[in-house]
Structures are given as structure tokens and as C-alpha cells.
From TrEMBL:
Residues reported to bind Mg(2+): 237, 258
InterPro entries in the cross-refs: G_TrmE, GTP-bd, GTP-bd_TrmE_N, GTPase_MnmE, MnmE_dom2, MnmE_helical, P-loop_NTPase, Small_GTP-bd
Cofactors, names only: K(+)
Record's protein name: tRNA modification GTPase MnmE
PANTHER family tied to this protein: TRNA MODIFICATION GTPASE GTPBP3 (PTHR42714), TRNA MODIFICATION GTPASE GTPBP3, MITOCHONDRIAL (PTHR42714:SF2)
One matching Pfam family: TrmE_N
Length: 461
């Protein structure tokens, strides 16, 4: 595949003083040579691959020195995109980095679209689709744990598992083909049935296991959707502020996702909390008043975690009881706040209403109980299991949907075997399972999906 040369500013992970202008494509090195002046007049086209060179970026029209730089030259195919790649490391500020990029663009490169470097890595067969998506997750990762999951996926952990499963299916399909083409070989048929049954069970179990990780995986990836509710004045804003202050607030800039509820991310012991509707708490205090009964019900329903705040220094009211009813059956932590004041709340009654929900007492004013609350949140979602770093997690909704569909297909195969469906009919569901799994790694995806996926990337990746 012959693609033009693209360029973009690519800032390394985790912020830093260095910004990189990255080029990728057939002419990357030629273009870099037009703007780079190495010490002793050294040309980049003559240097060995995977070497770094000191020099200056010069505007050839004005002879002006734009930047002092280190330039890495990496020749195809051993690069991220499998194309020639040049990285110009700039130490100056944003302005000079931009000027370097402009020069590179004048010299023949095209500005990369968001995600285009990763897209090329995919198109050139360097990484598969699930790995490409992992790059995107990595960029957005909100906690170290989320990052580890993304890195695992980027390293191809999920891909390997999916490929193994597909290989297993392929073997069975091959046997079935033989069976259909050469019906006279009875022993082949017998073997096919036995093998089919064994393999179908195995594949179903593996897919089920994988889906079981998806809840935690999704939380890590998207954040635990959390809503704080409670009567006015119980301490909701104080709780929110304490979260935001004590924990590193996570800045989010996911392009293209306009949400109608305001969100704030905080990192609570590795669990990313997506605090939903914080504006409601901050401004009008009353989520129902602000967004209406229907909407607030929807917000509540979609929440992964409810923090229900009560006032220790006040008696329980009808409204408190209604809140308990509204969140029935959900994951709830009951917070009894203002323990520094004289107790008026009836604890027996609270326990009765809370049923098996966890109860935590706090005094946000005196900064007490917050640690315990954080512990309760972490324990609720990651009972240590997430620490198992070598586990394969599914966190991407597209993958989860495909795995669920594949699971359904393989269950149909199993049904077919049980009721004695002709093998060439069973074959259809088997092939479908294979296809669906293939979509995860991009083996059978359509152009439209590819473009849609990669357009979500950040620029320069
Ligand atoms: P919200 O209406 O539920 O958001 O409650 P706020 O967080 O705005 O708090 C209402 C009032 O209670 C404020 O004056 C807070 O300073 C105060 N407050 C919050 N937490 C505590 C606490 O633990 N003890 C005491 N004594 N006051 C608190
Ligand atoms: Zn408030």
C-alpha cells in the first residue's frame, strides 16, 4: 500500500516539556532533510535506521533557525506504522513546535487526521484492530489500573486469546467441510460430532469467562458512573469537594462526546469515579428540580454507584425514605454525615432502610470517615482481583457486544448438536461465531467502521 507522508504534533504520554513532531510515510526522511540542518552538514537520508541526531530546524527561505532539536530516524518496516518515521523532538514552547510542524507541512507532508498514525499501523498490518483501540484507551486512561488494562490489550493479550479461539473453530469447520465433501468416510463424521461438542463447550466457557471481566473492564475504561443524592443541606457538595480535593481530579477531553449531564472524574484508590450531574449538586442542589423527574430517574438508573447522603444531626424524613425506594436494587453506599453534631438520626431505622447496603459515617467538616468511604468504594468493585495484572479484560463496548453475539452463536451450535440438527446447518452458526470474533481484531470489518473508530483518536497518535 502506497500512502502519502503525514505529520502531526505528538506529545508523549504524561505531559512533559518535550513536544514531538512526528512524520510517517515514504518521504518522511526526505521531507525532514528539507528542514533539518545537522552538525557538519550530515543528511538524514544517509544515517542508519533507529538513530538520533542533534541539529537545528531551519526555515530555508529566511535561513532563520527555528528550533534546536533531536531527530530520530526510523526506517520501514520496523516502526510503529511500518513506514519510514521521523520524530523531531522540540524543547521549545508550543509556538516553535507549531512552526516546525508548519515547515514540515510546507515541505511536502500532509497534516495527519486524528488517529491516522495508528490507523496506518493497522492498515499496514503492524497491529490489529483491538490493539489499535487499546492505543485509544491508553490515551484516555484515567487511572493506572485502567492504563494497565489498555497496555495489556495493546500488547495483544485479547487478540491472542481471540485468535486461539478462532483457530479452534477453524479446525472444527475444516472437519465439517471434509465431512460434507466426503460423506462416505463414516469415521470422519463420528469424530466431527464428538469434536464439535467438545470444542463448542470449550469456546462457550472461554467466551463466558471473558464476558465476566467486562464489568470491571468497562468500569476501568469509562469510569464508575456515580451519583450523589440526598436532601438539601446534608453535605452532598461537601462530599463532592472532598473527593475532588483529596483525589487527583481527572481532566477529561473526550472529543465528540457531548453529554447533557455534567461530569467530573476523580480517582478513588484506582477506581475512576465519573461523578454524574455534579452541576445539579453544585447549582440547584436538587437534581429532580433541575432536570425533571423523568430525566433524573434515568440518570439514577444508569448509575453504577449511588452515594446516598443522610444527616446524622437530623431525623429521617419521608424524603429520605423515598430516596431509598428510588435506588432499590442498585449498588448503594449510605453515608451518614455530620457526626460531629449531636445525633438525631435513628440508626436502627437507617439500618432497616439500608438493608444490605454498606453504611459509612462521616464528618466532612472535620474530614473524618472519607478514607473509610473510599475503602468501601474500592472494595465494592475490585476485591483484589483487579490486581491480577496478567488477566485479559474486555473493556471496550464494541468488543463486549461482539463477544456476547459470538456467545449466542456458539450456544446455538450447542443446541443444534443436542437436538441433532444436520451438521451443515450447525456449520452456519459456527462460521458466524468465527466471523464475529474476527471483527474484534479487524479481520472482517467494513471500511465505514474503521474510519469511524479511528476518527475518535487524538491528534498525533
Ligand atoms: P448539600 O446541600 O447536600 O450539597 O450540602 P452542603 O455540602 O452544601 O452542606 C450544607 C452545609 O452543611 C454547609 O454549610 C456545610 O459546611 C455543612 N456541612 C457539611 N458537612 C458537614 C459535617 O460533617 N458537619 C457539619 N457540622 N457541617 C457540615
Ligand atoms: Zn450543595
Amino acid at each position: 500500500m502506497e500512502l502519502d507522508t503525514i505529520a502531526a504534533i505528538s506529545t508523549p504520554m504524561g505531559e512533559g516539556a518535550i513536544a514531538i513532531v512526528r512524520l510517517s510515510g515514504e518521504d518522511a526522511i526526505i521531507i525532514a532533510d528539507k528542514v533539518f540542518k545537522g552538525v557538519g552538514g550530515k543528511k538524514l537520508k544517509d544515517v542508519p535506521s533507529h538513530t538520533i541526531h542533534y541539529g537545528h530546524i531551519i526555515d530555508s527561505k529566511t535561513e532563520e533557525v527555528i528550533e534546536e532539536v533531536m531527530v530520530s530516524v526510523m526506517r520501514a518496516p520496523k516502526t510503529f506504522t511500518r513506514e519510514n518515521v521521523v520524530e523531531i523532538n522540540c524543547h521549545g514552547g508550543l509556538v516553535s513546535v507549531n512552526r516546525v510542524l508548519q515547515l514540515v507541512l510546507y515541505s511536502g507532508a500532509r497534516l495527519a487526521e486524528p488517529g491516522e498514525f495508528t490507523k496506518r499501523a493497522f492498515l499496514n498490518g503492524r497491529i490489529d484492530l483491538s490493539q489499535a483501540e487499546a492505543v485509544m484507551d491508553l490515551i484516555r486512561a484515567k487511572t493506572d489500573r485502567a492504563m494497565n488494562v489498555a497496555i495489556g490489550q495493546m500488547e495483544g493479550r485479547l487478540s491472542r486469546l481471540i485468535k486461539t479461539l478462532r483457530q479452534e473453530i477453524l479446525e472444527v469447520v475444516a472437519h465439517v467441510e471434509v465431512n460434507i465433501d466426503y460423506p462416505e468416510y463414516d469415521d470422519v463424521e463420528e469424530m466431527t460430532h464428538k469434536m464439535l461438542k467438545e470444542k463448542a463447550y470449550y469456546i462457550r466457557d472461554e467466551l463466558k469467562k471473558l464476558l465476566q471481566t467486562s464489568h470491571q473492564g468497562k468500569i476501568l475504561r469509562e469510569g464508575l458512573s456515580t451519583v450523589i443524592i440526598g436532601r438539601p443541606n446534608v453535605g452532598k457538595s461537601s462530599l463532592l469537594n472532598s473527593f475532588v480535593q483529596e483525589n487527583k481530579a481527572i481532566v477529561t477531553d473526550i472529543p465528540g462526546t457531548t453529554r447533557d449531564v455534567i461530569e467530573e472524574y476523580v480517582n478513588v484508590r484506582g477506581v475512576p469515579l465519573r461523578l454524574v450531574d455534579t452541576a445539579g449538586i453544585r447549582e440547584t442542589e436538587d437534581i429532580v428540580e433541575r432536570i425533571g423527574v423523568e430525566r433524573s430517574r434515568k440518570v439514577l438508573k444508569e448509575a453504577d454507584l449511588i452515594l446516598l447522603v443522610l444527616n446524622y444531626a437530623d431525623e429521617l424524613t419521608k424524603e429520605d425514605e423515598q430516596l431509598f425506594e428510588a435506588v432499590e436494587g442498585m449498588d448503594v453506599i449510605v453515608i451518614i454525615n455530620k457526626t460531629d453534631l449531636e445525633q438525631k438520626i435513628n440508626m436502627e431505622k437507617v439500618k432497616e432502610l439500608a438493608k444490605n447496603h454498606r453504611i459509612v459515617t462521616t464528618s466532612l467538616l472535620e474530614d473524618k470517615g472519607v478514607g473509610e468511604l473510599e475503602e468501601a468504594i474500592a472494595a465494592m468493585y475490585f476485591q483484589g482481583s483487579i490486581e491480577a495484572q496478567d488477566m485479559t479484560y474486555v473493556s471496550n463496548s464494541r468488543h463486549i457486544a461482539l463477544i456476547s453475539q459470538a456467545l449466542q452463536a456458539i450456544e446455538e451450535v450447542m443446541n443444534g448438536i443436542e437436538v441433532g440438527t444436520p451438521i451443515d446447518i450447525i456449520q452456519i452458526d459456527l462460521t458466524r461465531t468465527w466471523d464475529l470474533l474476527g471483527e474484534i481484531i479487524g479481520d472482517s470489518v467494513q471500511d465505514g467502521l474503521i474510519n469511524q473508530l479511528f476518527s475518535q483518536f487524538c491528534l498525533g497518535k
